[in-house]
Amino acid sequence: CVYCGSSPGVDPDYVASAERLGAAMAAGGKRLVYGGGNKGIMGAVARGVRNGGGPVTGIIPQFLMDKERPDAGGPNDPDMNHANGDRLLVTQTMHERKTLLFEHADAFVAMPGGIGTLEELVEMMTWSQLGLHAKPIILGNIGGFWNHFSALVEQMTDAGFVHTANKVRAIPVDRVEDILPAIDEEAARLDTLKVRL
Q: Is the pTM of this model over 0.85?
């Protein structure tokens, strides 16, 4: 699952990196699960996967269709023009969307985004701390985007508020090319950790 902004942000490398991540996912045989929008960084990662021939599952609440998928159902709607296993799931609420994103994902990547991206990322970290999942969480740290967040989590850990820091790891990865290998490495570490626990 890739969490990211529905806007492009101010740095053109955010969108370019999202497209490269999507291309790498397609080349690696990975299905993209994401928030379903076709704008901003969200649309870029989906384009990257689709252009590489990979499958995409978009999950979006009905009330965001006009805002995040302005071409939905029209001739320019990419989900309507691909036959490579794409799916668009439309939910009634944000809670339902987030639950389905979680259920369809084997790992989570947070690319640059806003408050919604942050909220989704922190929820997955919280669920990891509570033992509700052991799925890798990776920060697409494009241009150092997540540096301050990583420092805040480290401060929380040092202050004694992250009581399972060995499980609640959001791994910052600076280069898009290293994101998929980082997922595999973290998945192996989490499997080893589960055996020890």
A: yes
